[in-house]
Amino acid sequence: MIIYFKVGNYKSIHQPLTLNFNAASIDEHEASNLHKTKRHTLLKSIVLYGHNASGKSKILDALVQFRWMVINSAKETQNTESINVESFQLSSASIDKPSFFEVGFILDSIRYRYGFEADSRSIHREWLLESKAKKEYPVFMRIGQDFQIDYNRFENSDKLEKRTRSNALFLSVATQWNVSKAQRIDAWFASIFTIHGLSDDSYRKSTIDLLNDQTYNEIINTFVKKADLGISSIEMIDIPISQEDIMKNIPEEMHALFKKRFKDDNLSKVIFSLHKRYDENKSFVEEIPFHFDLSESEGTKKYFNLIGLIVKSLLEGRLVIMDEFDARLHTLLSKAILKLYNSGKFSSSAQLLVASHDTALLDRDILRRDQIYFVEKDKYGATSTTSLVEYKARKDSPYDKNYLDGKYGAIPFVDDLETLIADVQKQ
After folding, report:
1. What pTM did the predictor assign?
2. Distance CA 259, CA 265 (A)
3. Structural fold of domain 2-192+318-404
C-alpha cells in the first residue's frame, strides 16, 4: 500500500507538498475507511477538490510520471533523450532546479522510501531506503553518477551503476538486470492503475477479459444490474465479419471507434446490452439486444469500462489513480464506487486516489476529514494542498456547504458574467 506521495518543483507545484495516506487521530469510520497493519493505519482513499486550474491534475500527473520513470526510464529512454519533467516556471529561483519526487509504500511487509530528483537532462539524486521496524537503512544512494550501494540489501546489483545512464533511474536499470528487489518494486509500481476519467476506453479490455471468464462474468453483470442502468445483462459475441463490411453500414462518425476496437480484420467482438421489452399490458415478455457502443450513454460506457479495473484492483489490492473521477457518472454511482473502496464488509488492501468536482461526495457518511484534500493556487500561481482535518472542521459540519461557502478555500471567484453580456449589448 502507498503511505504517502511527495512532490516539489513540478509544473504548477513549487514548494513540496504531500498526500498523506497515514490516518489522522480522529474517530471516524475506523472500522471501514482504514487499513491497519502492525505499524501503520492507512487511508483507503483520498479525494482531491479544487477549482479548474488549481493543480489537481498536476499532482496526479506527477505520480503518474513518477510511475512511468520507474517502469520505463532504463528501457525506453535513449541517452540523448530528455526526461519528461518540468520545473515550476513562475519563479526565477526554481526554473533551473530539479523536480523532486518521493513515495513511501509497504511491500512484502517492508516499508520503503524511494525517490529521485531530476531535470529534463539528468537524474540529480536517487535514493531507496527500507525498514522492517523503526530504523531506516539505505539500500542505495545516488548523487549524479556517484553511487553508494549496500550489496547485501540489493543483491546482484554489482557494477550496475556503470550501466546506468545519467538520464535513467538506477532502480529501473536494476530491474532490467534481474535484481529481485528492484523487480518486486517495479512490479508494484506497474500494478498501479492510472486513468483519466475522460479517456477511460483503454481499460475496457480489463472488463472484457473478466466478462470472458466464467468465474467473473456474473460479477460484471451484477455490477451492471445494480447500477440501475436499465440493462438486464451484458453479452459479447464474436462476429466473423470484415471491417469493410461494417464500415458500409454504420455512420461515418463511428468509423474511428470501430477501427480502435478491431484487432483482427476478420473477427469483431461486439458487446450487446440486453434490455427488457414489454407488451401492451406493460408486462415484460422478452429481452432484446442493443449494440452497446451505438445505443448506450457515455456515462454507461464509462462505468462499464471501469468495472474490470475496479474488480481487479479490489481483489488484487491495487492502487487506482483517477483524474476527473466524476465525469459522465451520476453522483450516486460515484458515491457507490467510493463506498466500495472504503468498505469494511470485505478485506482488501486496494486504495483509491481521485480528483473530483462533485461536492456531493463531500459527505461525512462516506469520507473521513483526513480523506479530503483541498487544492488551490496562491497569488504566485503555485499549487498547495490542505486536508480538511487541518481546518479543525467539526466532524458533524456540512462539508459540502462549507466548501461552497468558501470556508475551506479552493473555489473559484467568478465575476458577474451576466453584467458582462449586458454591457456588450449596450455598446
Report:
1. 0.86
2. 9
3. Rossmann fold (3.40.50)
